[in-house]
Automatic annotation (TrEMBL):
PROSITE patterns: MFS. One of its GO terms (cellular component) is membrane. This is Major facilitator superfamily (MFS) profile domain-containing protein. It is found in: Membrane. Coiled coil: none annotated. The keyword Transmembrane applies. The chain crosses the membrane at residues 150-168, 180-198, 210-228, 240-262, 382-400, 420-442, 449-469, 475-494, 515-535, 547-566. The keyword Cell membrane does not apply. SUPFAM superfamilies: MFS general substrate transporter. Residues 1-25 are annotated as: Disordered. Keywords: Membrane, Transmembrane, Transmembrane helix, Transport.
Length: 647
C-alpha cells in the first residue's frame, strides 16, 4: 500500500490523502480513542509477555499516562483506584512545565550520557581541524609543496572513507548495540590519530587518515541516535543538536592545539625523517605537525573508558526483547529507571516503546521503506529538503575555513605562520560560542527561520572575503578578510551549523528513518570530501577571491532553495509533519512566495497591518476519555518527533 499516492483529482492546496486508519497515522497518536478495557487488555498482555510482574503497577499507571497527560487529574479519583504519589506528580509537573528551564531538570545519569556523547562528537570536530594547522608544516615535510591534487587527497581522505563507512552503521548496531559501536569507533579514532604521528611519506599519511574515516563515519550516525533514544521527549530536540554543537567545540580544540603545538621546533632538515624509525619524532622531523594530528586521540579514550558505565539504549534493548530475548525487557526498564526521575516515567516509556516498535514492525511488513523513500511524494519531499540542508552545509564554504584557513592566510601573504594559526583559532572559538544560542532558538524561532535569516548574511560576509583578497596587500586587506571570516562564522553557527542533522532526523518518516538518515549522512560526507579535495586546485585556478565568490553565490542560491523546498518542522507532531510533507511541492513554493511578499511589505514598505502567512492549518485534535468514559480534554502528544527511535 502506498503511503502517499497522489490522485489527479486532489484539490490544490490540500494534502493528497487523509487515511485515518493508516498504520503510520496510528503511530502519531498511538492510544487515541482506546477504551479502558482495551488499555487493560494491552497492559496485561505486555506484562505477561515481558515477565515484568514485579513492576506491573508502574507499567499500568504509566500506560494510562502514555494515553493522555490528563489520565490522573488533580482532585479526581479514578474508578480503577490508580493514584499518583506526590513525588511522581512533582516530576510530571516538571516534565509538562511551560517553563523551558524546568524540562532540563533531569537525572544526573542522563547528563553523564549526554556528556559522553558530546565528547564523541568533539572527537570528530578535533579530527577535522587538526589538519588545518598541521598542513602548514607537513606540506614541506612530505614533499607536497606545489602538488595541490595530492594535498587535497591527503586532507580529504577521512571524508572519502566516511561517505562509505556510514553505511556500516546499521549492521554494526545490529551486531554490537549502540554502546559497542561507540566504543569500537572511538577506539579506531584514537588508534588512527596516533598513527598520523608516524608517516614518513604522504602515502602513509593518506592511509592513516583514510582509516580514521572508519571511526568517524559510523560514530557520526550512532551517537545522535543513542542520545535521542535515551533522552525524554520534551528535550530531545535540544539534545539531538548537541552533536553539531560539540562538534563545533572539537573544531575549536583543533585550532587551539594548532596554536599551542606550533611552537614545538619543526626544523628545516627533513631528510632525517627517512633515516631511521628512532629519529622519526625528532624536532628536525617536524614534531609539531605530528603532535597536532595525534592530539585528537585523547578525547576518544575518555569515551572508551566510560561508555560502558552508562545505560544501553532502552529502545535497542526492547527491540532485542521483541526478537525473543525476554530478559532484555527488564534491562530496558532498569535503564529507563536510571534515565528518568521515577519508575512511573520508566514504565510509561517502556510500554510506549514496545507499542511503537510493534507498529513499526507492521509497517515494515506492508511497506517497502527503501523504494518508497524515493517514489512516494511525502517521503520524497522530506528527503529532498533534508538533502538540501546537508548539501548546503558543505557548499556554503564553511569547511574551506575549517580545513585551509591557516594555509590560505599564510600562502597569500596576509599573516605569518603563527599569526595565521591564531586567526584560525579565533574562527574556531566563534564557531562554538555562536552555536550555543541555537539550543534555545532552534525550538522557538524555528529551523526554517534560522536558515532563511542567516544565509543572506553568510553570502554578504563571504563577499567581504572576496573583496578583501581583491585588494592590494596591506592592513585593509587583512582586516576585511578576517572580519569577513569571523562574521561568516557568526552567521553560520546558529543556523546551517546545527539545523541539518536535526531537520533530517525529524522530517524522515519513522519507519524508514534508518534508510533516509543513511542517505543524507552519506551525502553530507561526500560533499565534505569534495570540498576538501578540490579547494587546493580551485583556489589556484580561480584565485582565492574567485573561489570564495563561488561559495558566496551558493549561499545566495541556497536561500532560494530553502524558501521553496524546506518547510518548517518545529513544534509539529508526527501527524502534522505528515500533513506538511503531503502538500505538493508547488504549494510549498507558493507559500515561500507569500512569505517573501509579506516580509517585503511588512519590513521594507512599512505595511504593518499585513498578516503573516501560515502554511499548516491544524485540524482539531482528537479527544481522549478518562476511565469513566468522560471527555477529559484534547489529546496531547506524550512523545515528540522521534518516538519510534527514542520513546
Amino acid at each position: 500500500m502506498g503511503l502517499l499516492q497522489h490522485d489527479e483529482h486532489d484539490e490544490p492546496g490540500k494534502p493528497s490523502e487523509q487515511h485515518a486508519d493508516r498504520p503510520d497515522r496510528r503511530l502519531a497518536q498511538p492510544f487515541s480513542g482506546w477504551t479502558h478495557e482495551q488499555m487493560d487488555t494491552a497492559i496485561d498482555n505486555f506484562v505477561q509477555v515481558s515477565e515484568l510482574e514485579d513492576y506491573a503497577h508502574y507499567i499500568r499507571k504509566g500506560a494510562f499516562l502514555a494515553q493522555s497527560k490528563a489520565a490522573f487529574p488533580v482532585g479526581r479519583d479514578r474508578r480503577d483506584g490508580l493514584k499518583l504519589r506526590e513525588i511522581e506528580r512533582t516530576y510530571l509537573d516538571l516534565e509538562y512545565s511551560s517553563r523551558r528551564i524546568d524540562k532540563f531538570k533531569q537525572p544526573w545519569r542522563l547528563y553523564a550520557l549526554v556528556g559522553c556523547c558530546s565528547l564523541g562528537a568533539a572527537v570528530q570536530g578535533w579530527d577535522e581541524t587538526a589538519v588545518n594547522g598541521a598542513q602548514v608544516f607537513y606540506i614541506d615535510a612530505l614533499g607536497l609543496r606545489g602538488r595541490d591534487g595530492l594535498l587535497g587527497l591527503v586532507n580529504s581522505a577521512p571524508y572519502l572513507c566516511c561517505a562509505f563507512s556510514c553505511w556500516l552503521n546499521y549492521p554494526l548496531n545490529k551486531l554490537l548495540d549502540r554502546r559497542g559501536v561507540i566504543f569500537l569507533t572511538c577506539l579506531i579514532s584514537s588508534i588512527t590519530c596516533l598513527g598520523q604521528a608516524f608517516p614518513q611519506s604522504w602515502q602513509q599519511l593518506f592511509a592513516a587518515r583514510f582509516l580514521l574515516g572508519l571511526g568517524i563515519g559510523p560514530k557520526s550516525a550512532t551517537i545522535p541516535i543513542y542520545a535521542a533514544e535515551a533522552a525524554p521527549a520534551n528535550i530531545r530536540g535540544a539534545l539531538v543538536m548537541m552533536w553539531q554543537m560539540w562538534t563545533a567545540f572539537g573544531i575549536m580544540c583543533g585550532y587551539i592545539a594548532g596554536v599551542v603545538l606550533a611552537g614545538v621546533r619543526d626544523g628545516s632538515d627533513h631528510s632525517i625523517c627517512d633515516a631511521s624509525f628512532g629519529n622519526l619524532l625528532s624536532s628536525r622531523c617536524s614534531l609539531n605537525w605530528r603532535l597536532m594530528l595525534a592530539s585528537p586521540m585523547i578525547l576518544p579514550l575518555f569515551v572508551v573508558a566510560y561508555i560502558y558505565t552508562l545505560p544501553e539504549s532502552p529502545r535497542w534493548l526492547v527491540s532485542k526483547a521483541r526478537q525473543g530475548n525476554k530478559k532484555k525487557y527488564e534491562e530496558a526498564f532498569m535503564a529507563l529507571c536510571k534515565l528518568r526521575h521515577t519508575k512511573l516515567q520508566a514504565g510509561r516509556d517502556l510500554f510506549l516503546i514496545d507499542h511503537l516498535l510493534q507498529g513499526e514492525e507492521e509497517i515494515m511488513k506492508q511497506q517497502k521503506p527503501f523504494t518508497e523513500l524515493f517514489t512516494l511524494g511525502r517521503n520524497r519531499r522530506a528527503l529532498t529538503a533534508s538533502v538540501i540542508t546537508m548539501f548546503l552545509q558543505q557548499f556554503c564554504g564553511v569547511n574551506v575555513s575549517a580545513y585551509y584557513s591557516s594555509t590560505i592566510l599564510r600562502d597569500h601573504g596576509l599573516f605569518s605562520e603563527q599569526s595565521a594559526l591564531l586567526v584560525s583559532m579565533g574562527f574556531g572559538i566563534i564557531n562554538f560560542l555562536f552555536a550555543l544560542p541555537a539550543v534555545w532558538t532552534i525550538d522557538t524561532f524555528g529551523r526554517r527561520n534560522l536558515l532563511l535569516s542567516t544565509f543572506p548574511f553568510m553570502a554578504i560576509f563571504q563577499i567581504f572575503i572576496v573583496i578583501g583578497f581583491s585588494l592590494p596587500s596591506g592592513l585593509a586587506q587583512r582586516i576585511l578578510v578576517v572580519v569577513g571570516m569571523y562574521l561568516f562564522g557568526v552567521a553560520y553557527s546558529p543556523g546551517e551549523g546545527p539545523v541539518p542533522f536535526v531537520y533530517s532526523a525529524e522530517s524522515m518518516p519513522l519507519y524508514n528513518r534508518d534508510f533516509g538518515m543513511g542517505i543524507v549522512t552519506s551525502i553530507n560526507w561526500f560533499w565534505n570530501f569534495f570540498i576538501s579535495i578540490t579547494w587546493p586546485k580551485f583556489q589556484t585556478a580561480f584565485t582565492p577571491s574567485g573561489a570564495f565568490g563561488w561559495y558566496a553565490a551558493w549561499c545566495f542560491i541556497g536561500w532560494w532553495m530553502i524558501l521553496f523546498f524546506v518547510p518548517e518542522t518545529k513544534d509539529l507532531t508526527l501527524e502534522q509533519l505528515d500533513q506538511v510533507f503531503e502538500y505538493r511541492t508547488r504549494e510549498h513554493m507558493r507559500h515561500g512566495v507569500e512569505q517573501l511578499r509579506w516580509f517585503v511589505g511588512r519590513y521594507l514598505m512599512g505595511r504593518k497591518t499585513l498578516s503573516r502567512p501560515v502554511f499548516l492549518h491544524q485540524e482539531d485534535p482528537e479527544e481522549v476519555f478518562d476511565t469513566r468514559g468522560e471527555v477529559v480534554g484534547p489529546y496531547e502528544e506524550v512523545q515528540e518527533l522521534s518516538d519510534l527511535r527514542g520513546a
